[in-house]
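Notes from hallway chat w/ T.B., transcribed later so I don't forget. T.B. wanted the structure written out for a chain they're using in a teaching module, and asked if we could keep both sequence and structure tokens in one place. Agreed to drop them here.
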Amino acid sequence: MAAVLVLVLDAGWQIGARELANIELRDDLKDMSAQLGARIALSSAKSDEDFRSDILNKAKKYEIPLQPEQVTVRRSGEGFTATMYLAADYTVPVNLPGVTVNLHFHPESGPKIR
């Protein structure tokens, strides 16, 4: 009975940790897409590659295995009317005794722009 409880707690811990990391990354994507500094001229606008690099660094901080090709950066408009869409698409394994379950995540900053 105790072994089953340990297995359930371990699985819950692994899944919970990955869900929390995904939520943190999603929140960062939303914050980054706001680009408040560039909109009010406190900083220069970042390039798409700058955003991609920032997202990869955030993912690394949360121990999310993310590659540049898994990151989407889209923008539309300029200045105060600019909109930014940031997203990532990744899968992380949860290792349980005898089986590995892959969890798929797709955090995004908000509505997709074309």
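Follow-up for T.B.: Residues 61 and 73 are 19 Å apart (CA to CA). Might be a good example for the class.
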